[in-house]
Amino acid sequence: MARTGNRVRPSRVGRTQAFKQNSVMVASASLLACSPVSAQTAPGGAAPSSDEETSGDIVVTADRLGSFSADFVQAGTFRDSRLRDTPLTVAVMTRELLDAQEARSLIDAVRNTPGVTQAQINTVIYSNLSIRGIPVNNFANVRWNGILPVVNLVEQPIESKDRIEVLKGAAGLYYGFANPSGIVNLVTKRPIDGPVTRFEIIGNSHGTIGGSFDVSRRFGSAGLRVNAGSAILEPGVRAVEGERHFVTAAFDWRPAEGLEILLDAETVYKTISEPTEFALPAAANGVIAIPPLQSPSKNLGAEWMQAKGWERNLLARANYEVAPGWRLAAAIGDSFLSRDRDYSSFGSYDLATGNGIVAVAMTSGNDYRNTIYRGDLSGAFHTGPLEHNLLVGVSYTTRDSRVPTAVRRSFAQNLYDPVAIPQQPTPPAIVPNPSRIEDLGVYAFDRITYGEWFQATIGYRKTDYSDVSRTSAYALKPGTFSWGLMVKPVSWANLYGNYIEGLEPGAIAQQIANNAGEILPAALSKQKEVGAKLEPMRGLLLTAAYFHITRPSSYLNAQNFFVQDGGAVYEGVEFSATGEVTPNLSLMASGIVLDATQESGAAAVVGKRIENTAKFSGSLFVEYRVPQIAGVRVSGGLFHVGRRAVNALNQGHVPGYTTFDLGMSYTFRLRGNRMIARVYGENIAGTRYWAATGSSLLAQGLPATVKFSLSTAF
Question: Could you tell me which residue ranges the TonB-dependent receptor plug domain spans (predicted)?
Answer without folding.
Answer: 83-183
